[in-house]
Amino acid sequence: MKIKIEGGRLYDPRNNLDGEERDIFIENGIIVDRFSSADKTINASGKTIMAGGIDIHSHIATYGLNLIRGTGRFYSPREIGYIYAKMGYTHVNEPFMTQVTARYVHHELSSIPILDTSAFLVLNLRDVEAKIKSAKHLEEVEKIIPIIIAGTKAIGLKIYEPFVRYTQRTHILRNVTEKKVLSFFSSINREKIPRIILHTSPELFGKEIENPVGFHFSHVGSAIGNEEDYQKVLSYLNAGATVDLGLFDFEQNLRISNPKQTVGEVFGRVDMGLSEDIVFSQGNASESETPFFAFKLALSQPSNHISFSTDSPANASFEAYPKIFSWLMKAENRANLFDKELPDFEYSLLDIARITRYNPAVILGFKNKGHLGAEAEADIAIYDINKDTKPDKLEAGFRDCACLIKSGSIVVEDHKIVNDQAEKKTYYRGVETLDYEPAKILAGYSTFRFENLMVDEVFTAKEVKI
């Protein structure tokens, strides 16, 4: 189908479009330069147009969530797809997939309607403990990790626990320190593994990180407890690292954490093969100064190194995004959040497009997502807002987009979901040849055969290798 969108104002950092009025032409699911006649024309006069939103860090398929759904504390796959679509989002990245849970995670992701998906692989460092003790094994690890990423259909590597710990009574000398791990992965060839994701915790700020440009720090706002931590994050950004924000909404939310970070009522523990269980709890995590510093960072002039996140559902549910966007855009909307004074910077619509579309696309490695240029995927959100929209109307505008086009198919029309069968894709980072032999070491601590831990296409949506 050929679709023409006319009269809207485009916000697209990649193509330097800051509210320019232009027509968009869609053919076979792709944005094209132009054609003479359209099968359907959408009038977007006076409305804001952005690429489909990309959520870089949202726990929507983490192992154990099905258990939590049984308690009524989390959304069904259908609800996830519908809520995101109504907000103008077309892609969500799951940040917590282990080698053992990969098939489960992808099966969950494939059951969410409308949204394209991807996932970070959390590597159990015990499996490569002998290799990361010395830089002489660097080339070997650089060969192993891309294979395991490709085999699990992951889009990137995440380090959740930057250490290797054993029970001291049994393996007194076998611990590997955070310093050793961070130093080793700082030296990884970025052409083979473009950017390593670090789970950000307060303890991480106390470690020296060589070459921060090679890392992405996830949900940094969750870990910033004081001015010293805040300055540390700024130093990472100045060195070329990327971050996602980890902002808060000050509500009682589902927490997914290690036992030390548990807040409120605990109602589930899951063993994912790491050194500690993952704990599901519910409570308000905003009693400290952490939320203030998270927003202070967000309001310190957005850059190409910062992406939006809330560590959903931990600091805020993804359903709270429109409210937080309204806080970022208008100082009066956030006036009563804190006793201390925040920067008076206000996000523009272009800034929102940058942190929710363009920057996440770059970090995840997408060339055809996050922008409105020719040859991009026709993932397009149209909002009933503009640069003159009143502060009290912004939240509603972001919560309920006027139109959403996904892969060239109209999903939301006149604020209603009219099609939840748009083509879904699973994006992952592939390799030329999936050779299992060099990576079989990673099954050394498992009772499974290595190849049985890999993800087959039966578990995914239409696969897209990047």
Whole-angstrom Rg = 22 Å
Overall mean pLDDT stands at: 91
Low-pLDDT runs:
none
Which CATH architecture is right?
A: Alpha-Beta Barrel
Could you tell me the CATH topology label: TIM Barrel
CATH class: Alpha Beta
Strand percentage, roughly?
Answer: 15-25%
Q: Give the strand tally.
A: 24
Number of DSSP helical runs: 11
| Biggest sheet strand line-up | 8-9-10-11-12-13-14-18
Sheet with most strands: 8 strands, parallel
Structural class: alpha/beta
Overall morphology? globular
End-to-end separation in angstroms reads 26 Å
Secondary structure: helix percent: 10-25%
Q: How many structural units, i.e. domains?
A: 1
Give a structural overview.
The protein is α/β, with parallel strands linked by helices and 466 residues long. It contains eleven helices and 24 strands. It has a single domain (53-368, 427-465), classed as TIM Barrel. The protein has helices at residues 65-69, 77-86, 102-110, 129-132, 138-151, 178-186, 227-238, 290-298, 321-329, 349-364, 394-399; strands spanning 2-6, 9-12, 17-21, 24-27, 30-32, 40-43, 48-51, 53-55, 89-98, 116-122, 156-159, 196-199, 215-218, 242-244, 253-257, 265-270, 278-283, 306-307, 380-383, 403-406, 409-413, 416-417, 425-428, 462-465. The strands form five sheets. The protein has an eight-stranded parallel sheet with strand order 8-9-10-11-12-13-14-18, with helices on both faces. Strand 9, helix 3 and strand 10 form a beta-alpha-beta unit. The longest helix is centred in the last third of the chain and has 16 residues, at 349-364. The protein is globular and about 65 Å long. The relative contact order is 0.18. The model has no long low-confidence stretch (mean pLDDT 91).
